[in-house]
Amino acid sequence: MVVTAVEAGSSARAMAGAVARREISARELLELHLERIAERNGDRDAGVNAIVGLDVERAREGATVADAHQAAGAPLGPLHGLPFAVKDTHRLAGWRTTFGSPLFADHVPDVDDLPVERVRRAGVVLLGRTNTPELAAGSHTFNPVHGTTRNPADLTRSAGGSSGGAAAALAAGMVPLADGSDMGGSLRNPASFCGVVGLRPSLGRVPTWPVANQWEVTATYGPLARTADDVALLLGVQAGPDPRAPQALGDPGHLLGAPLPLGARALRGLRVAWSLDLGRLFPVDDAVARVVEEAGRLMARNGAKVFAAAPDLSEADTTFRTLRAWHLHASYGELLARNPGGIKPALAENIRAGALLTGRDVDRAYRARTELGERMRRFFADYDVLALPAAQVPPFPVEEEYPAQVAGEPVRDYLDWMRAAYLITVTGCPAISVPAGTTPEGWPVGVQLVAPHGADRRLLEVAAALEAASGSSR
Fold first, then answer.
1. What Gene3D superfamilies is this protein classified in (predicted)?
2. Would you say the pTM of this structure is higher than 0.85?
């Protein structure tokens, strides 16, 4: 029975429970996923190409250790025995971590990033990495080291990015959970493209260490899964305070990771601000608009009070672009100077833009970011969640670096088509992409739900209720 459920894409929580009850061993669960990887993953020239750096021997050794640990009666972590692949921009001690860049093709870190350390401690069985764009820059997953990740729903389409390998691996049933990160939409965009759930947590919810700047961040780690409940399970492991991360929120992770309520009850009486474009701040493809509009109607049919409303985020575009350029130059300016031809042109241009910023530019961006956060706080006094598209377009052709236009409007650069996600980024609020439907071609489309800063658990409950209402929960 468990084998059948796993093959059908059962939940990570159900798999972990089956291992804990000894209905299936960690080794057996791993072999089921390795079979799925062999069927779907392929390589850089064919197949989904979501899992890179697959190490079958080391994975089997890890599963054997997990089973021995359980047989000895030792305490089990909440993810004990679950196969897991780490995003290839997250440091994983002893495993090659390339960041999708030829400059790091042979890099093997000697320390885990803190969220990876926590996932290891929770009992996962590591099997490899998930693919990412070069240095995690861009929302289409391709790089010179591992090639291009394709969308499991249609191999001619992009899986999104930068956590595109993670989202595609989930959608194809190769892993039950996946980690990712998000600056301008890198959890939400691939979740929308691949028909899975991706949460950008509140800033400070998932602490990070080691980092160059502990006191100010725009990007954050976060979870991806096939259901909101499984996202909660992984968030419960990733989240929580740590003395190495002084800006972390203080809520213990286990409070976030408990099973979510069943059914659509969380939609009853919910005050939803629904907006297709945040007051004409970005264009939206017609096929995406139809799906997001239906999601609003679905919430209303299930008892939500849906209002056409949006916060004023008119300064968010300039604010995000300034802070992104500043962070990229701080992270990669010296690397680019040493290797002027070693980084893809679009990213190199962004890094150089950061060098041209003045102190006044950065000060203006931080002042605007503070004001945007204050506006959101006031906005959420009247509404419980904001609903809008997670991505402005459906999955585009895999050969393109980014779409040339959205709803007939030309795209300025490789960031421009992601405004629906990155305008939310600079508010610091938690945002989740939930599968909402498909285009006539069968390409997935997600709706983005946003809640007040710190309300991650409440946001997950609403996401789970929307899944139940739409029948998409698995």
1. Amidase signature (AS) domain (3.90.1300.10)
2. yes
